[in-house]
């Protein structure tokens, strides 16, 4: 099968995109082809709800393009699942939101789960994301930050892993969490060491999304048109405006 991964952060280099593809391919089936694109027309990185909204139109455009190019599934490579419902309305192939998939999986592995996010500022948004995931909010034990605002979690991976272990241990001991979710796709690949240190299952949204895409494709499943009907056919466009806040 062919999976298109859409990264809603602007300006990733071709080399970095290929590196992500190779990383994701390690958990994929041998016959699965993975291609990652990032947004190029919308200058945002997903650090707030404002960024999620701004990225949405181009994310939908890339999903439509992926279906036209013959891809079998689309993955939204962000725990905020930007434009998830809009993409599902716009294409027939499965659209997997990394956040939703992770929370549904967490609820199947334990009664309570915690999310490890990148900064305190993102905690309210992550709590709201549990509500639209389809998982009962009472299953959320906590959301804890590892405090790397404005920095690259992959710049010093051992240091980031140590912060994840410390926060994950607090989730287990103080919040009584049974499962942990890596709350940023930049944490991809760091789960095993966190799991070994905390003794809890750790869900990696990047890898979980790839495997869910393969599962849906193998069973010939996609989102319901009753839930996500196609929008009225008309031309839609957006400009190149700018805001500074």
What does this structure look like?
By secondary structure, the protein is an alpha/beta fold. The chain has 2 domains: 2-98 and 207-218, Rossmann fold (3-Layer(aba) Sandwich); 99-204, Rossmann fold. The protein is 41% helix and 15% strand. The protein has 8 helices and 8 strands, in the order βαβαβαβαβαβαβαβα. The protein has helices spanning 14-25, 49-68, 84-90, 98-109, 123-133, 157-173, 191-198, 205-218; strands at residues 2-7, 33-38, 73-76, 95-97, 113-117, 140-145, 179-182, 202-203. The strands form 2 sheets. It has a 4-stranded parallel sheet with strand order 2-1-3-4, sandwiched between helices. A 4-stranded parallel sheet has the order 6-5-7-8, sandwiched between helices. Helix 4 crosses helix 5 and helix 6 packs parallel to helix 7. The longest helix is centred in the first third of the chain and has 20 residues, at 49-68.
Q: Specify the helix fraction band.
A: 40-55%
Q: Give me the secondary-structure category.
A: alpha/beta
Number of domains: 2
- Separate helix tally: 8
| CATH architectural grouping of the largest domain | 3-Layer(aba) Sandwich
Flag low-confidence runs: none
Q: What overall geometry do the principal axes of the alpha carbons give?
A: globular
